């Protein structure tokens, strides 16, 4: 008997309790505390499940429905180290977000906290489940929670629009995913991931396999925000209340990739094994494209939250490269990087939330130099920007070096160079903002015609309406920011984390042992990993990224934009113009993405 | 085979509607058409020639029945559609109230 | 992107997607011959081991009961969400506006509607309750019955008896019922852990196939879902009705 | 495949296409309702009375009510806006 299901059920129960008492409890600070405690309990339970698994995989069958002669009849949680660690990571971010909610969300009822708790529970369940349809249910649950949470600030125009495009594009994504699941069920007669993989391997890699792969991957990549499925992301993340943005940017997108990795190995690994090299090329290419588009768009923004959203997209591309290398080393690197980057990104979101809380704007130009009075946050922000550019010894550095090594081993020698450029661009853009806002140096940011329209509607109202306490920075805001940044630093310094991640990844990719354990109850063999920490090349690449980030920041501060070639600016405008905020455009791109992905996989399979 | 093709058709038609829609309520109902494609696909996959409905109330215990698993999945799917429609329509009503238009192409306050 | 470009891109992609999908469904088993073994095992298990006649209800509330928990939570969140999203429009004059709306309507039609509503409410309520509790035996269950019950409450609305509805459906009560339905499902799931061996374990006696209480926790969960769905759907629909009754004026 | 299934499938395809192609929201709501009805008969023909029942309560009660109320709300806002404009002139 495992504690893993409790990590989902406890926050759910707390959420229903909050909702049930909502009409009677006027003060919502107490509700906020209850929500934090419930999220904390979920985090502790996730940690307990991780400890309980102890490097192995732990299988829990709901209702005690064990498989009958190798046929799964119920739903299982298959708690492997990577899944449990992701769940723990999500729950920890959830605690930080809910702490900020106590300060930021000024509503009279408890419903916000209740929905946020269900959101966290859904993400935890999504990480732990071993059943494809159950994965879909949690996927849908977290989406619905996210639509509501993003649109919560309904009185303003932008959140409403962000929530609409978010809901429309993601609904298309989940319908595509469900079609893929239906096709797979038709072929295999199973919903359990392990059993699906086993049954699929008995048949040919034909049209059904190719198309269901494209549909499932496409549906998950909508969530992960890979190009060309990414358009909704910036619209939604930029307008969500800060604590929600923190959860979305830190974990939500990354969960799309986690789901892809899970399905990639458990379901499709065996049947597509002969075509692995081609598949690798497709995924790495998609990742690189995403990373570059995200980085360029990030550097072009002047709306801080939107900038962080594009930084998220860009880094999702880099994680996709790590996972797309289709080996344990790349996966381990991506896992470490996702956690490290998620913590840094969350700290940055929290800092931006603090600026918004204080100055009621997140426009770079309007904030110019005003951050000087809260210099401590400035140090934090700039450290975060450099950590995004993989400054050692923060967590992202560790993950990035591992992915680089894996790419070199796989024969993708050009990938680390791209990664340096991308990290330098995103990190440099953020550093530029840090210097402008907190030091007031450099050429002020230009008025951005793209965000001007949102401006008029905002009416200068921040998330908080009382301006009583400008003298102090609320501890409930800077506390989580500092704690998250400290955690990101600690993550890069934990002894043995590389070896543990290596073993966990070996476990994750060993699908035959996984299926044997889940379906037949065969004990797992021992795994070992030869993964080691960063070597000389890793340090050199990191030095290049950080130096590049500084150069990018300095160039921007010196006003390089005015001297840029006209053709480059026009190309940039075209790219920005594609992010039109219109759901019809986004739906067309989603259809195109799935069609192209399917076509490419079809070519790969031959 | 006809059933599968109808499912494919519904998916494509619904997606076409979403791409070209000029009214948010129209767009939401087109999403409903896409969702209907998944119902048809799932239930068609579960159909057994000559099978009875999987309810052993008035049939002998060893009658061949159609696949009940896809039906349970479709039930969940129907609920999901209803909820998504509810949330999207709530947003649509708000959007119209705020901006005075229901044209999805009028969205894009924050873009680029 | 211009509408023309979008149309070209969209049609091209749809053509590609259509070709892929047709290729894919060609790989499915021939129509009418579903692939086992799940499809064959599940109804046998429900009948033999749980005494549940309706295999679909059995799968929904027992074998794959954990999915249904997620599904209920989706509805729970959507109901809260619709309420939250729509209430932002509500102003203080709600009740007054609703009353004014009532006055404006012709008395004749309202009377006819009221009569029709009053006639239909009773049967709909009964049918809804029947469908909820007989889920393990006949088609239906908590979800279908719940929507019917919500429909019955809506009929009261349709009859224009706003005042009566304010008594029948105080919004806070509906919210509480919505939350309690979801809580009850979660608690039954947890009871499996406390009294049985696993979360979602079926801890009650299974009864005789065909009787109302057969299937252990299946009817209990069905009723929990019924409560949740009734409240959730009522909450959503009544928020929409309130929207319509609100005197619309342009804010800002 | 039974004859009933074939008929229902064709009806579903036609109603689905009509739902997409009808651009007037109110008429589209009617088309969407007939799609829901055709689907529920199809589900009965597929031996799925449970799904047919939920489809009919969703497509016959919940969704049309929400759509009609949303449209009614949109129309009253439009009318009020038109009235305001008239008053301004």
Characterization of the model:
- The complex is a heterotetramer of chains A (606), B (112), C (252) and D (89).
- Mean pLDDT of chain A is 90; it is low at 452-469.
- Chain A is mostly helical and 606 residues long.
- Chain A is built from 25 helices and 2 strands.
- Helices cover 73% and strands 1% of the residues of chain A.
- With 112 residues, chain B is mostly helical.
- Chain B has a single domain, classed as Helix Hairpins.
- Chain B contains 3 helices and no strands.
- Chain B has helices spanning 2-20, 24-46, 68-99.
- In chain B, helix 1 runs antiparallel to helix 2.
- The mean pLDDT of chain B is 89.
- Chain C is mainly α and 252 residues long.
- Residues 91-96, 105-109 and 247-252 of chain C have low confidence and may be disordered.
- Chain D has one domain.
- Chain D is built from 3 helices and no strands.
- Chain D is elongated.
- Chains A and B meet through helix 5, helix 6, helix 19 and helix 25 of A and helix 1, helix 2 and helix 3 of B.
- In whole angstroms, the N-to-C terminal distance of chain A is 46 Å
The helix-and-strand class of chain C reads: mainly alpha
Number-wise, the strands of chain A total 2
| SSE pattern of chain C | HHHHHHHHHH
Q: In DSSP terms, counting alpha (H) and pi (I) runs of 4 or more, how many helices of chain C? A: 10
The total count of strands of chain C amounts to 0
Strand content of chain A: under 5%
Task: Give the structural class of chain A.
Answer: mainly alpha
Q: Oligomeric status of the shown chains?
A: heterotetramer
What is Rg of chain A?
23 Å
- Write down the overall geometry of chain C: globular
Q: What ranges of chain C have pLDDT less than 50 throughout 5 or more consecutive residues?
A: 91-96, 105-109, 247-252
Number of helices of chain A: 25
Helical amount among residues of chain C, as a percent range? Answer: over 70%
What proportion of the residues of chain A is helical, as a percent range?
over 70%
| N-to-C series of helices and strands of chain A | HHEEHHHHHHHHHHHHHHHHHHHHHHH
Bin the strand percentage of chain C.
under 5%
Rg of chain C, Å, rounded: 23 Å
Could you say which overall geometry of chain A the principal axes of the C-alpha atoms support? globular
Mean pLDDT of chain A: 90
Order of strands across the main sheet of chain A = 1-2
């Amino acid at each position: 008997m495992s504690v893993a299901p409790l990590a989902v059920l406890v926050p759910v129960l707390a959420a229903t309790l909050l909702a049930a008492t909502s009409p009677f409890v006027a003060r919502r600070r107490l509700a906020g505390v209850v929500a934090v405690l419930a999220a904390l309990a979920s985090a502790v339970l996730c940690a307990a499940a991780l400890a309980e698994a102890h490097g192995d995989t732990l299988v829990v069958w709901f209702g005690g429905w064990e498989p009958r002669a190798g046929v799964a009849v119920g739903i299982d949680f298959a708690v492997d180290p990577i899944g449990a660690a992701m769940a723990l990571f999500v729950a920890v971010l959830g605690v930080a977000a809910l702490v900020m909610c106590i300060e930021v969300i000024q509503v009279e009822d408890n419903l916000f906290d209740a929905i946020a708790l269900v959101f966290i529970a859904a993400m935890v369940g999504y990480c732990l489940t071993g059943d494809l349809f159950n994965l879909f249910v949690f996927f849908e649950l977290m989406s619905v929670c996210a639509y509501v949470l993003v649109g919560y600030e309904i009185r303003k125009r932008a959140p409403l629009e962000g929530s609409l495009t978010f809901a429309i594009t993601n609904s298309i994504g989940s319908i595509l995913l469900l079609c893929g699941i239906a096709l797979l069920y038709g072929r295999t007669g199973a919903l359990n991931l392990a059993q699906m993989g086993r049954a699929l391997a008995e048949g040919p890699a034909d049209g059904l396999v190719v198309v269901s792969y494209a549909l499932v991957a496409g549906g998950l990549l909508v969530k992960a925000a890979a190009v060309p499925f990414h358009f909704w992301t910036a619209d939604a993340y930029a307008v969500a209340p800060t604590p929600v943005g923190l959860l979305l940017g830190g974990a939500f997108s990354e969960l799309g990739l986690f789901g892809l990795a899970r399905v990639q190995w458990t379901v499709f690994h065996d049947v597509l094994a002969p075509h692995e090299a081609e598949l690798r090329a497709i995924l790495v290419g998609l990742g690189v494209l995403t990373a570059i588009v995200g980085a360029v768009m990030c550097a072009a923004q002047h709306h801080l939250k939107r900038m962080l959203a594009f930084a998220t997209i860009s880094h999702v591309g880099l994680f996709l490269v790590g996972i797309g290398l289709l080996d344990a080393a790349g996966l381990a690197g991506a896992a470490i990087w996702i956690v490290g980057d998620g913590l840094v990104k969350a700290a940055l979101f929290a800092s931006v939330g603090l600026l918004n809380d204080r100055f009621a704007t997140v426009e770079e130009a309007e904030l110019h130099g005003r951050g000087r009075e809260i210099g401590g946050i400035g140090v934090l922000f700039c450290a975060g920007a450099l950590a995004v550019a993989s400054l050692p010894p923060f967590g992202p550095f560790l993950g990035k070096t591992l992915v680089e090594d894996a790419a070199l081993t796989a024969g993708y020698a050009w990938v680390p160079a791209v990664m340096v450029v991308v990290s330098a661009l995103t990190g440099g853009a953020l550093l530029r903002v840090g210097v402008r806002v907190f030091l007031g140096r450099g050429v002020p940011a230009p008025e951005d015609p793209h965000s001007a329209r949102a401006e008029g509607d905002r009416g200068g109202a921040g998330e908080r309406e009382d301006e009583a306490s400008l003298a102090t920075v609320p501890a409930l805001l800077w506390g989580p920011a500092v704690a998250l940044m400290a955690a990101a630093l600690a993550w890069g310094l934990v002894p043995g984390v590389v070896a543990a991640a290596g073993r966990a990844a070996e476990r994750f990719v060993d699908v035959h042992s996984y299926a044997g354990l889940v379906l037949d109850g065969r004990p797992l063999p021992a795994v070992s990993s030869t993964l080691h920490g960063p070597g000389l090349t890793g340090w050199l690449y990191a030095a290049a990224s950080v130096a590049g980030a500084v150069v990018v920041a300095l160039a921007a501060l010196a006003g390089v934009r005015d001297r840029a070639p006209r053709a480059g600016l026009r190309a940039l405008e075209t790219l920005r113009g594609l992010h039109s905020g219109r759901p019809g455009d986004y739906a067309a791109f989603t259809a195109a993405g799935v069609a192209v992905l399917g076509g490419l996989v079809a070519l790969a399979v031959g | 085979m006809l059933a599968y093709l109808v499912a494919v058709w519904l998916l494509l038609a619904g997606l076409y509607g979403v791409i070209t829609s000029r009214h948010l309520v129209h767009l939401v109902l087109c999403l409903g058409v896409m969702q209907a494609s998944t119902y048809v696909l799932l239930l068609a996959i579960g159909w057994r020639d000559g099978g009875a409905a999987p309810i052993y109330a008035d049939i002998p215990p060893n009658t061949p029945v159609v696949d009940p698993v896809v039906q349970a999945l479709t039930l969940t799917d129907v609920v999901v559609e209803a909820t998504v429609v509810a949330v999207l329509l709530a947003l649509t009503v708000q959007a119209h109230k705020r901006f005075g238009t229901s044209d999805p192409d009028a969205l894009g306050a924050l873009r680029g | 992107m211009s509408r023309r470009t979008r149309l070209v891109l969209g049609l091209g992609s749809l053509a590609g997607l259509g070709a892929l999908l047709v290729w894919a469904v060609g790989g499915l088993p021939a129509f009418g011959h579903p692939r086992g073994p799940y499809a064959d095992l599940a109804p046998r298990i429900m009948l033999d081991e749980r005494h549940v006649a309706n295999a679909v209800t059995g799968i929904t509330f027992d074998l794959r009961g954990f999915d249904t928990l997620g599904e209920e939570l989706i509805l729970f969140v959507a109901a809260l969400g619709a309420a939250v999203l729509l209430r932002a429009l509500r102003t203080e004059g709600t009740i007054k506006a609703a009353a004014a709306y009532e006055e404006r309507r012709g008395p004749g039609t309202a009377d006819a509607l009221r009569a029709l509503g009053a006639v239909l409410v009773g049967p709909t309520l009964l049918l809804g309750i029947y469908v909820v509790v007989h889920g393990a035996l006949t088609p239906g269950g908590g979800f279908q019955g719940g929507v019917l019950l919500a429909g019955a409450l809506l009929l009261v609305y349709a009859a224009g008896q706003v005042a009566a509805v304010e008594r029948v459906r105080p919004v806070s009560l509906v919210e509480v019922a919505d939350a309690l339905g979801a809580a009850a499902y979660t608690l039954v799931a947890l009871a499996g852990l406390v009294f049985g061996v696993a979360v979602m374990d079926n801890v009650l006696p299974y009864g005789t196939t065909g009787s109302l209480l057969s299937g252990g926790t299946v009817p209990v969960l069905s009723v929990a879902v019924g409560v949740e769905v009734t409240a959730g759907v009522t909450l959503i629909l009544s928020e929409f009705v309130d929207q319509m009754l609100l005197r619309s004026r342009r804010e800002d | 495949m039974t004859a009933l299934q074939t008929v229902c499938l064709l009806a579903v395809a036609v109603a689905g296409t009509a739902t997409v192609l009808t651009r007037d929201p109110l008429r589209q709501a009617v088309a969407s309702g007939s799609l829901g009805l055709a689907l529920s008969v199809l589900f009965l023909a597929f031996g799925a009375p449970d799904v047919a029942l939920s489809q009919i309560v969703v497509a016959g009660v919940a969704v049309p009510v929400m759509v009609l109320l949303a449209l009614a709300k949109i129309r009253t806002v439009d009318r009020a806006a038109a009235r305001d404009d008239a008053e301004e002139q």
